[in-house]
Amino acid sequence: MPTIKARWTDGVRYVHTSATGHALVTDAPAVAGGSDTAPTPMELVLHAMAGCAGVDLAMILTKMKQSFTGIEITVSGERRDEHPRVYTQIEFHVVVRGEVSEKKLARAVNLSLDEYCGVAGMLRTTAEIKKSWDILVD
User: At CB < 8 A and 24+ separation, what contacts does 57-61 make?
Assistant: First the structure.
């Protein structure tokens, strides 16, 4: 079972270390008692979704023999006002650069977000995930 450690530094800032030894910092905005020096934990949830889906998309498009030279993912989310302030709506947008079939890109996005990406799977329990994509030809 993967395990992380979070070490408090000051205010509400923590340094997190993964089981593989990688570190990152979280903080909160000044209005929430933080120093605004790092992403918030809830922002990292969106980062995790983008990273998870990004791995899937690169692998799926490669298996589909699509010739891409770039993938850029934007994820934004709305949270409910009551605690716990979970995401209720997430917009996932990917721009793929290269010679890529729109039909295959749509299939890859759907496979990732509906079947493979564990982060999207968890978020789907509280949030509607809207998907969109664009293809930019080199």
Answer: 57/94, 57/96, 57/108, 57/109, 57/112, 60/107, 60/108, 60/111, 60/112, 61/96, 61/100, 61/104, 61/105, 61/108
